[in-house]
Amino acid sequence: MGKSDEPGNLEARIRSSFARQGLMSTLGATLGDITHGAVDIFLPPSPAISQQHGFVHAGAISAIADTAAGYAALSTMAPGKGVLTTEFKINLLAPAVGSRFVARGKVIKAGRTLTLAQTEVFAEQEGPPRLIAFLTATLMAIEGRNGISD
Amino acid sequence: MGKSDEPGNLEARIRSSFARQGLMSTLGATLGDITHGAVDIFLPPSPAISQQHGFVHAGAISAIADTAAGYAALSTMAPGKGVLTTEFKINLLAPAVGSRFVARGKVIKAGRTLTLAQTEVFAEQEGPPRLIAFLTATLMAIEGRNGISD
Amino acid sequence: MGKSDEPGNLEARIRSSFARQGLMSTLGATLGDITHGAVDIFLPPSPAISQQHGFVHAGAISAIADTAAGYAALSTMAPGKGVLTTEFKINLLAPAVGSRFVARGKVIKAGRTLTLAQTEVFAEQEGPPRLIAFLTATLMAIEGRNGISD
Amino acid sequence: MGKSDEPGNLEARIRSSFARQGLMSTLGATLGDITHGAVDIFLPPSPAISQQHGFVHAGAISAIADTAAGYAALSTMAPGKGVLTTEFKINLLAPAVGSRFVARGKVIKAGRTLTLAQTEVFAEQEGPPRLIAFLTATLMAIEGRNGISD
Fold first, then answer.
1. How far is CA B44 from the centre of its chain?
2. Structure confidence at residue B91 (pLDDT)
3. Between C68 and C149, where is the model more confident?
4. Does domain D3-143 have CATH number 3.30.470.30?
5. Which residues of A touch C145 (CB under 8 A)?
6. Span C27-60, pLDDT tens digits
7. Is-contact A10 A75, C-beta < 8 A?
8. Is D23's CB within 8 Å of C85's CB?
9. What does the pLDDT profile of chain A (150 residues) look like in tens digits?
10. By three-state DSSP, how is residue D97 classified?
C-alpha cells in the first residue's frame, strides 16, 4: 500500500476495509477500538436482525464475532496482506438480549499462514456486561491473490 | 399448538417461524424445500451482504447455514417445542462467489435434549453447484421456556 | 517416494504410516478398509482407555476419529506429501459403550493447501451400529518440511 | 457424597476421579494444580503416544486438553454431579514437540445445564512455554443418571 505500518495507518486500513463491508452496514454494526491484535465491534438490537423469538439472531452475533476476529488478525499483519476466515466455532451461551452487543476480537496466536483469534461477545444492559457468545476462528493470510488485501 | 403434527402442519410451522426472522428478510434469504429432518434456504448475492473484497460475507453464509440446521432440527420435534443453537462450527471452503447460494440443512442425530445437524452450502453458477461451506450445529430443544416455540 | 500412486501403493503408504503411530498401537486401534478418500479405524474397548465412569474416554474416540480423517485426506494426495491436522471439532453424541468402535473417515473437500474431512464413529453391539460421535477436521498438506511425508 | 464441598474435598474428588481414568494413566498424564474453575494436566512425550512423524499425537494432546476442561467444569459443580463432554474444538497451532506438555483448563462460563470451558496446551522446552493448542469444550452436567458422578 506504499505506506509504513504505523499505528495510525493500521487503524485507517481497518476502518477503510470495514466501511467496504456491506453486511456490517446492513446489520447496523460499527467499529470500536482498534489496537495491535484486538478489535471491537458494536451492534445495537433491531427487528431487522432478529430471529423468530425476538432475540437478535445468532447469525448476526456470529457475523460481528467473525469480523472482529478477522480484523484482530489483520491488525497484526503487514500492509498489503488480507485475511480470509477458514473456519470458526461459536458457542452461544445465552439468548442475545440487551441494549447493545460488543464483540471483542483478539489474536491468540499469529502465524505465517494461519492465525488463531478469539472473540468474546458481551450483552450490555443494566449491570455488568454479560458474556453471551465465544468464538474461535482460523484466519488465513492472503497476499496478491485476486487482488485481496486488507 | 393444538394441531396434530402432520406434514403440512410441519411445513406451515416452519414457514411461519421463518417469516418472523427479521434477519432472514434483511439478508434476502428465502425458504426452499422442507421435509422431515431437512430444510433448504436460498440466498442471492448483493452488495448489502458483502465483505470487503466483494464476496458474500461469511457472516451471511453462516446465518443461513445455522438457520437451515435449526429448522432441520425443529422439523423432527413435536409441535410446541422450539430450538436454540448452542454452538456451531463452519468451515469456509471457498470464497462465496456465485449467482445464488443454497444451504441444505439436515439432522445427523436427533436427541431428547440436544440434536446435531449439518448444513452444506453450495454456490450456484455455471456448471454443477460447488460446495463452499460446511457447518455442524448443536441445537437444544426448548419447551415452555419464555414462551419459546417453533 | 519414487513409486507411482496406484491403489495398492496408496494402501501400503497408509498402512506403513499407521504402523509408525505409537498412539494407535497403545490404544489398541487397527486399520480397516482404505479407499481413495475414505479410511476406517477400529478400536476395541478396554480399561486402559476408559474415563472415570467406565466408558471409553472421549480422548480415545477423538484420537481414532482424527486419525481416520487424516488418512482419508492423505489418501487423496500425491506420494511424498504429508498431512497435519490444524483443527477439528467433535460432537460426542452418546457415551462410548459397545463391543467395538469404528471410525469412518472421508474427505468432504480436497484442496491444494487445506482439506476438510469428516469422521463418523459408530459403536457396535447388538443391533445396528449406533452413531456416537461426529468429527470434522481441517488437514494441511505438508511437503518437504522437516522431512514430513505420509 | 455426604461431605461439604470445601476446597480440600473438591481436590480429593477430582484426584479420585482422575485416578479412575484408565486412559490418563495409559498416556502417562498426571494432575497438576486444581482450583475452583481451573485444572492443569501434565504429559511427558514418549514413543507410546507418538504420531507417524515422531511428534506427540494430536489425539493425546486432545485427550489431556478435553480432560482438563472437563475437570475445570466439574470443579465448579456441587458434589454428586458429573460432567460429560458434548463437543469440543481444538486448534493445533504447532507440532507437539517439547520436554513436557501442560494443559491448562479453565471455565469460561458455568451454566446450569451446559458449561463452556477452554484449555490452552503449552509445550515446555528451553525458553518460555509455547502455546501449541487451544480447545473449547461444552460440558453437560449429569446428576443421578446411570450412577454418574464426579
1. 15
2. 98
3. C68
4. no
5. none
6. 999 999 999 999 999 999 999 999 998 999 999 9
7. yes
8. no
9. 334 456 678 899 999 999 999 999 999 999 999 999 999 999 999 999 999 989 999 999 999 999 999 999 999 998 888 999 999 999 999 999 999 999 999 999 999 999 999 999 999 999 999 999 999 999 999 986 555 677
10. coil
What is the three-class DSSP state of D113? coil
Does C81 lie at the interface with D, CB-CB under 8 angstroms? Answer: no
B5's grid cell: 403434527
CA C52, D89, C20, C40 torsion: positive or negative? positive
Q: What is the SS3 assignment for chain C? A: CCCCCCHHHHHHHHHHHHHCCHHHHHHCCEEEEEECCEEEEEECCCHHHECCCCCECHHHHHHHHHHHHHHHHHCCCCCCEEEEEEEEEEEECCCCCCCEEEEEEEEEECCCCEEEEEEEEEEECCCCCEEEEEEEEEEEEEECCCCCCC
Q: Which of D17, D23, D82 is nearest residue C60 as measured by Cβ atoms?
A: D23
Nearest chain A Cα distance for residue D2, angstroms: 32
pTM of the entire predicted model = 0.94
Contacting partners of chain A (3+ CB pairs under 8 A): B, C, D
Asked whether A41 and A34 are in contact (CB, 8 A), the reply is no
Distance CA B92, CA B102 (A): 14
Q: In what order do the strands lie in the sheet with C38-43?
A: C30-35, C38-43, C100-109, C114-124, C130-143, C81-92, D81-92, D130-143, D114-124, D100-109, D38-43, D30-35
Closest CA to D119 of D132, D138, D105: D105
Judged by a CB distance cut-off of 8 A, whether residue A116 touches chain B is no
The 10s digit of each residue's pLDDT in A33-73 is: 999 999 999 999 999 999 998 999 999 999 999 999 999 99
pLDDT in tens, D12-63: 999 999 999 999 999 999 999 999 999 999 999 999 999 998 999 999 999 9
Residues B22/A50, Cβ–Cβ less than 8 Å: yes
In the block, cell 512425550 appears at: D45
Q: Is the interface score ipTM higher than 0.85?
A: yes
d(CA D119, CA D102) in angstroms, rounded, equals 10
Is residue C45 within 8 Å of C98, Cβ to Cβ?
yes
3-state secondary structure of A148: coil
Q: Which cell goes with C7? A: 491403489
C50-93 per-position pLDDT tens digit: 999 899 999 999 999 999 999 999 999 988 889 999 999 999 99
